[in-house]
Amino acid sequence: MAHADTHNAAAHPHPDAHAEDTMEHGGHGSLREYVVGFLLSVVLTAIPFWLVMSGAIPDPRTTALVIMAFAIVQIVVHMIYFLHMNTKSENGWTVMALIFTIVIVVIALSGSLWVMYHLNHNMMPMSHEMSSMG
Amino acid sequence: MTATTINQTHDLSQAQLQAAFYDLDEHDHPEGGSTMLGFWMYLMSDCLIFAMLFAAYGVLGGSLAAGPGPKDLFELPLVALNTAMLLFSSITYGFAMLAMEKGSKGATQIWLLVTAVFGIAFLSIELYEFYHLIHEGATPMRSGFLTAFFSLVGTHGLHVTFGLVWLFTLVVQVGRKGLIPANKRRLMCLSLFWHFLDVIWIGVFTFVYLMGML
Among residues 13-32 of chain A, which lie with CB inside 8 Å of chain B? Predict the structure, then answer.
């Protein structure tokens, strides 16, 4: 209720104040922000491509982990410099939605991979027996 | 005496209840005030669609059915070029947003069209790749790996296609009505959408293309 009152008091002099406010938070950046984001993205894209194409790290497993780390860093860079994510926009609701989505994505991805890996693993001897029987 | 006090407190709580539950104090909701948050919710649900497609690719990626695998099919230089196109389109869209902020209509339209050129280049390269794969017999019907591959990359490509349709619509809209608040809002929604597609592409080139070549 207190929130509604202050909101009212603030909104009455300028009916569009709220709309402008939302837009202000919605997604503007400066030229510097875009350029920094772009340069970081170029570097963070070029390194994984180079790692895989040149085979600089002999062990594929290590290479996979390194390029996954680069992908995560680049996603964060895009979120900050291009999508202009911050904890204050829309009273923090965009961040809340993002966190919720990440939780669901992590559960769905790790769950699917984990379950299906074990399914394949457990089905393997069966199909092996079948083929040796035949 | 006591009766009136009770009565008063009763009235007060009733008034509080009404104010709290019915919000009798009407305050105006400006047009478009909740659009950006709503669009963000849409993007998050779109994110879930892609997460499921990534999960399907993760599960089916190894099911080659004795068909061609990632190493036989993917050409990394082409993927690198594609990635560059999408990244360029991201920064040119950023320039369009900066031009919008300055209020210059012409510059906004020009940067939007430059973005469209990079977007079309991205799609053309992707379609060329798909054509090449299908020509070699690596169709979506060939194996579980290829089904998952075409679903994931194809869905991303469809998003870019609809983003382009939206982009051309906005070029015309801005040309006709100028940089009115409604058009600014639409441009900002498309900005989120366009950059979001670039974020998804980071996942695609890392998990599908680069890790497929290891």
Answer: 15-16, 18-19, 22-23, 25-31
B/e letters for B19-42, b = 16+ CB within 10 Å, e = fewer, are eeeeeeeeeeebebbbbbbebbee
> From first to last of its 134 residues, what are the pLDDT tens digits of chain A?
344 444 444 444 444 444 444 444 445 678 999 999 999 999 999 999 999 999 899 999 999 999 999 999 999 999 999 998 888 888 889 999 999 999 999 999 999 999 998 888 887 655 544 544 44
The one-letter amino acid code at B128 reads: Y
A95 vs B: CB within 8 A: no
Contact A90 B30 (CB under 8 A): no
Task: Check: CB of residue B93 under 8 Å from CB of residue B191.
Answer: yes
Interface predicted TM-score (ipTM): 0.83
